[in-house]
Write a structure and sequence with these properties.
The chain is α/β, with parallel strands linked by helices and 293 residues long. It contains ten helices and eight strands. The C terminus is likely disordered.
């Protein structure tokens, strides 16, 4: 009986091992296919670039655009999130971010017309915090690229997501000061969505705080969200920082944000992402509902 039990255990271990290594092999093949598709996307510049307006909630004018790069939907990358999640797991973060930066600036310039009202607007570029720390990343290259297109560094805002945590704040602050000395500005994205928000804001002293859409959704009905936004707004006003509310979709959300002094806003209710530079517009309020999506 004991021998039978040992035999069953050995057989079970053997088949478990086979399954384990087979799963690894399959995962490796899938990742290889994803890597090939990523390489193909970069080589063919097949990302689609969109510009979403950011509005002054007081006057209604468009102060800038966030530039969004989205991959084509495919079996390997059915969503934009799956695409960027994969890049974060590879050693291609730096090279891909540089590619996106160059593509974004070039396509922004190509979207400008001779008489456009958007020529002096701010440009918000999403960037992984660790890229700025990479010794291969030279801010002078960005300045040179901007000069080629007649764009000032003062127009460029590096948008750092709060979800991608900074670990060495002292070192990162020094790096950001170097970029600021050249005219670039900093925005902290997704503020209020994680545990690291307050520390990030205190150490990095961004020029813009972008409130996560989870704080904005139905804010007119939620006292907890209201208190959090009020706290972040007080901090911003005392720190000469501007607050941008993301994900504005409902008229009631907009009215609340305007009444409470939030500086700027972004969302489908103010302007959807477009492949060309289309300024946003504050809707007439009160109204039943803004166009959603």
């Amino acid at each position: 009986m004991l021998k039978d039990m040992i035999s069953k255990i050995n057989n079970s271990t053997f088949y478990s091992s086979l399954k384990y290594f087979n799963d690894i092999r399959k995962k490796g093949l899938v990742n290889h296919k994803k890597f090939l598709e990523l390489t193909n996307i970069i080589n063919n510049e097949s990302l689609s670039t969109f510009f979403q307006p950011i509005l002054d909630l007081n006057g209604g004018n468009t102060i800038g655009f966030e530039i969004l790069n989205r991959p084509p939907s495919s079996k390997m990358f059915p969503t934009t999130e799956s695409f960027y999640d994969f890049i974060g797991q590879t050693d291609q973060v730096f090279s891909f971010e540089c590619f996106c930066r160059n593509l974004s600036i070039q396509r922004y310039f190509n979207s400008l017309s001779a008489d456009t009202l958007c020529r002096d607007n701010l440009i918000f570029l999403n960037i992984h915090p660790q890229v700025l720390l990479d010794s291969n990343y030279k801010s002078g290259e960005t300045v040179q690229l901007l000069q080629e297109f007649g764009i000032s560094p003062e127009q460029v805002v590096f948008e750092l997501t709060e979800k991608q945590a900074v670990t060495d704040f002292v070192q990162f602050e020094k790096v950001l000061n170097n970029y600021r000395s050249q005219g670039f500005r900093i925005a902290i994205d997704d503020a209020g969505s994680g545990y690291n928000s307050l520390k990030t804001l205190v150490y990095l002293k961004p020029e813009f705080i972008k409130l996560d859409k989870s704080l904005i959704r139905h804010i007119d009905q939620d006292s907890v969200q209201q208190k959090l936004v009020s706290m972040l707004l007080d901090f911003a006003n005392q720190s000469d920082t501007f607050v941008i509310a993301e994900g504005i979709e409902e008229a009631e959300e907009l009215v609340f944000l305007q009444k409470n002094g939030v500086h700027f806003g972004q969302g489908y209710g103010l302007g959807k992402p477009h492949k060309t530079l289309i300024t946003g517009k504050l809707p007439q309020v009160p109204s039943l509902r803004l166009i959603n999506g």
